[in-house]
Amino acid sequence: MGKLTLQPNSPIASNIGRESTHKSLPIPDISKWSNGFRGWSILNKVSNPNPVSPKLGILIAASEIAENRIFGWAALFLLLAAAFGGMAIFQLLTPLVMVGFALLFLAASIYRLAGWYLSRDLKVEVFRAGFTLRKSGKTVMVYWRDIDYVVESWQKVVYQGIIHVNTHKVEVHQSNGQRIEMDRSLEKIEQIGRFIQLAVADALLPAYVQQLDSNQDCDFGAFKINRFGIKHKDKFLPWHDVKSLDVMSVGQTTLKVQKKDGSSWSGGWASENGKAMRNLQLFLNLSYWFIDVAHRPSQDPVNSVAQEIDNGDAYLGLEITKAEARDGTQKVFYVGTPMQERELIVRIPAAVQSGTVYRF
Question: Is 21 exposed, middle or buried (0-12, 13-18, 19+ CB in 10 A)?
């Protein structure tokens, strides 16, 4: 069962040129490609079984303002301000310099508290059909189908066990030109960003596959792809010559495309930061599809892909804890298309063994 993820709408150009001399690969059958936000799916991670919004369906995840993080920084800055103020009063060091530092940290503390006060009602809720953002008394509702593309960037610098830099920003660009930004003011920004990526990928997938079927380029920002290969700036690499597409998450997201017969010690055929990508998840899933097909030993990849047997079954791997396996447990799932889900209760008996299959 395939999986895919998001990418925005960007300029698309016809593939007439050097890449057309290379073999065109088949496009995926996306009838069963879903991250849970499009088509028929089995949902096992639902925050609220009852649709909070009749327009957006089941609630998948939610996050409010990161009060502990904001108050923690405010308290730290206030403590530093008091420390430098004390040194100025007792003239332990140059008083004017100490007063300057005290005022600086006091201003930083006030800035943090003011930011919390102005955004104290901040909340994001992710549903199957879209998401809502509440801030400063106003609520914005956005459908996944109305999103053009998503850009996600983060950076984390740790030195001697101390975090010096920790940023995370998600930019949602809508088809009407409006933009919504989210950052670490949200308690669960990493989770929210991940779900938004998956949801937009589901929403944009059919349109991008149609573009590929028409032998057009799909623009993902720093990279473009088509059925012949991948483009980076003024370079083109056929899928058959791609050795790997690596994603590194050390300090930030970095993508590296490796060419066959290329040196493993070099920087690769192309390398880019994740923040230069639009709809990163969709780019990865489509690219991995083409790389996999290009590397298959079959002489006829089109037929080898088409020969996959579909007996109508859908499978979901379920992870449970050792305690749940020993004592038994109960899980609730929601099965079906958006706004048409049905509840499925699975009772798992005690002493269940790994690999046990339940059929419904």
Answer: exposed
Q: Is 229 exposed, middle or buried (0-12, 13-18, 19+ CB in 10 A)?
A: buried
Beta bridge partners of 224: 219, 231
125/50 Cα distance (integer angstroms): 13
Sign for the CA dihedral angle at 290, 296, 301, 304 comes to negative
- For residues 289 and 151, what is the distance between their CA atoms, to the nearest angstrom? 22
Q: Which helix (H) or strand (E) holds 176?
A: none
Q: What is the rounded distance in angstroms from the CA atom of residue 58 to the CA atom of residue 343?
A: 12
Torsion of CA 126, 279, 152, 230, to 10 degrees: 160
| 238 compared with 336, residue with greater pLDDT | 238
Secondary structure class of 129 (helix, strand, coil) = coil
- Using a 10 angstrom Cβ sphere, with 0-12 exposed, 13-18 middle and 19 or more buried, the burial of residue 131 is buried
| The token pair that represents 183 in the structure block | 């950052």
* Cα separation, 208 vs 210, whole angstroms: 5
Cβ neighbours of residue 148 under 8 Å, at least 6 residues apart? 8, 9, 173, 174, 175
267: left (phi over 0), alpha (psi -120 to 50) or beta: alpha
CA dist 94 and 304 (Å) reads: 77
Q: Is 123 helix (H, G, I), strand (E, B) or coil?
A: strand
pLDDT in tens, 127-162: 999 999 999 899 999 999 999 999 999 988 766 666
Place of tokens 């956005």: 142
Angle (CA) 175 288 188, round 5°: 55
Angle, vertex CA 206, rays to CA 309 and CA 332, nearest 5: 65
Distance CA 232, CA 220 (A): 10
Predicted TM-score of the model (pTM): 0.82
